Amino acid sequence: DVAGIKASLRGIDMLLAEDLNIKVVAFAEGEDPDSFAQKVQPGELKEFLNENAVDFVAFKSSLLLEEVGDDPVKKSALIQDIVESISKIPNSIKRALYLKNTAEKLNIAEETLQLELNKAIRKSVKVVRREQELDEVIKPLVDHSQPVEEASNAEKQEEEIIRLLLHYTYDEIELDDEHADTSVEKKKISVVDFLVHEILQDELEFENTTYNAIFKLFENAVQANQQLSQHEFTNHSQTHIQTTCIRLLSSQYSLSENWEKLEVVIPTEKSLLKQSVFGAVYHLKLKRVQLMIEENQSKMQQKVKADEDYTDELKLQRTLENIKSDLTKHSQIVVVK
Q1: Is there a contact between 208 and 158 (Cβ–Cβ < 8 Å)?
Q2: Averaged in consecutive runs of 10 residues, what is the pLDDT profile of the chain (337 residues)?
Q3: Report field, pTM of the whole predicted structure over 0.70
Q4: Residues 248 and 166: beta-carbon distance below 8 Å
Q5: How far apart are CA 31 and CA 130, in angstroms?
Q6: Considering only CA atoms, which of 273, 269, 236, 237 is closest in space to residue 253?
Q7: DSSP states of 80-116 as a string?
Q8: CA distances to 190, 225, 256 from 219, in Å
């Protein structure tokens, strides 16, 4: 029936794009290839197909022209639809021949159709380039060949910052040159001064409300030049702060005495404090950037689907990718692209 024929036409463009030669055969009302084949001999079926097969342009034109009649708007839409189909053909010679046949059948200047064909091809190329451009900037953030615990926030990284603040508040670490050249002028600095400075400098906010409340206590103490003790956290008046601090201050592991008996030196976290503190900062920043990249990618994909301009998002994506690359080097994380 007509509805079935129109549905079949929608799949023609995909076949044309694969450089297939499309011929169409229409059966009588109520017939389909199976029912017709059962009524006739194989030779008759073959003869019928050979005699009635027409190219897709002729078929599409004859079918749809009956509907549009003399309506110039509908006829224009029909011609545009046929030209769009021709534009899918990768072989330029085939395209030229189909275009010529279409001009003759529809009684329209070939030059006019050529202009519309060029527009359709340029539009198609633009879409392909856009997809390639997106593929270039939208890359995996992690190695998906390895099992990874997915996280939609930076809570794990925030917890590590708070844990280090609670355990090593006033222990000192030696600054690298890049940090020593900032407003922090000392070559050595306490963990709390360094972490508070880094978090505030990049205007980072803790998403976890309990971690944010604990960090604010450290921030206020640094700004007021006051000393804090672990006792103030483990006995805090707010239960959620108290229980969280007790949990984070409880050591998960203890070093076996057997290592000392065997005279094997095992480095402790305190002996590697600088690496732990710097790593925690970079991991938090990197996670935040990754989340921003994912959010920006989603916005770009939405704009592509809506055929809207995404130039601003593309620029931001490249900037974020550069920041991520720099943070990755500092945190010594290998990101598979």
Answers
A1: yes
A2: 62 77 78 82 86 79 71 81 84 85 83 85 66 50 42 82 92 72 65 92 89 94 92 92 90 51 53 84 88 88 82 87 80 43
A3: no
A4: yes
A5: 44
A6: 269
A7: HHHHHHHHT---HHHHHHHHHHHHHHHT--HHHHHHH
A8: 13, 10, 36
